[in-house]
Amino acid sequence: MQDYLIRVLTTNKQLRALAVKSTDLIEKARKSHHTTPVATAALGRALSGVLMMASLVKSGEEVSLIIEGDGPIEKIVVEANQYGEVRGYVKKPVIDFVLNNHKKLDVASAVGKGQMKVIKNKLLKKSFESTVPLVSGEIGDDLTYYFSQSEQTPSAVGLGVLINKDLSVKAAGGFMVQLLPDADENTISKLEDNLGKIESVSRLIEAGKSPEELLEIVLTGFDFRVMERKDVYYRCKCNRERIAALLNAFDEKEIKEILEKEGRIEVRCHFCNQSYEFSPDDFNPENER
Questions:
Q1: Can you give the CATH number for the domain in which 277 is found?
Q2: Would residue 171 count as lying in a domain?
Q3: Do residue 258 and residue 178 come from a single domain?
Q4: Domain that holds residue 182
Q5: Where are the beta strands (DSSP E) in the chain?
Q6: Tens of pLDDT, residue by residue, the chain (289 residues)
Q7: Residue 212 falls inside a structural domain
């Protein structure tokens, strides 16, 4: 099953929800960054979360999520756009294998205490930025808190990543459900009851549940219609031309000194680990003619 995301609206127009299957794209991120299991789980949750957030923004916007904690991972940076493209990295991709009291990967301890920053980059307009404290480090709970505090939108976010014995990603994805302004007490009560019965998002995906089937569980007792369905991908925006443009913005003297000392300049992209190498000839104006 190709990774994809859906966005739905209940027919009573009191709830909107999203669900995503992201197993393959998170496996691609794991391979790019050589993450160990806990780092894979943390990065994977953030990637799934930001994909759903980016599906709620207006045309031309991109969402960045930056999580900084005092745990061994230190920092997670992910960003996505409305076209289903996402990328990201963790500052410390290799950390010890840690389990919590429930014998699950201890993402909360790996992230630690700190803050979450959400940046909505708007095309040709001023960006929106909001920072909230991490309430658990589990990422799903932290996004739930962000929506209630920064966007005044009561929400519930569930995220999960399962890891195989060979350290590859077995199943990953998540859901997000939000109350709309006209939500009544009956809707709220029914939704809370549904959410209370969900034990593991990743286990549901492992069992073969599609995003539609996942939302049928989250929205049990509600009718809904799919407003959007799109494939999602781990895809970086970097290329040699972009990197070269960045280097050309540096001081010419500084570039020359590095080339004289090292004989070349190597730039590695944080988001995909792709390396780009430039020689003195690449900075020779004669080559542009």
A1: 3.90.1280.10
A2: yes
A3: no
A4: 4-234
A5: 4-10, 15-21, 62-69, 75-81, 85-90, 114-121, 128-133, 155-163, 169-179, 224-231, 233-234, 265-268, 275-278
A6: 799 999 999 999 999 999 999 999 999 999 999 999 999 999 999 999 999 999 998 777 899 999 999 999 999 999 999 999 999 999 999 998 776 766 678 999 999 999 999 999 876 677 889 999 999 999 999 999 999 999 999 999 999 999 999 999 999 999 999 999 999 999 999 999 999 999 888 889 889 899 999 999 999 999 999 999 999 999 988 888 888 888 877 778 888 888 888 888 888 888 888 888 888 888 765 544 4
A7: yes
